[in-house]
Design goal:
The two termini are 23 Å apart. The protein has three helices and no strands. With 81 residues, the chain is mostly helical. It has one domain.
């Protein structure tokens, strides 16, 4: 697959490579896609949560926050890998 990086984003990508945060443009793109994938998963979870609330199903707030913090920590660890 060949992907063109928009001209306004190219300097940002090149800076990340120059700073050795990533080795290649493909690595930068892959990380961006991983973050987008995580964002979409979170969006789906929020949508499902609202559906559960509308159906009258809910959890205590402390359980919800504990699960959210765990998912955030997992996503942050994955983005660093």
């Amino acid at each position: 697959m060949t992907v063109d990086i928009p001209a306004d984003l190219a300097p940002f990508v090149q800076r990340l490579i120059a700073e050795r945060r990533f080795l290649t443009e493909g690595d930068v793109l892959a990380e961006g896609l991983r973050l987008l994938q995580s964002q979409e998963a979170l969006r789906a979870a929020v949508r499902d949560g609202f559906a559960e609330l509308e159906e009258g199903r809910s959890l205590p707030a402390d359980e919800v926050f504990a699960k959210a913090e765990k998912r955030i920590a997992t996503a942050e660890r994955a983005s660093r890998a």
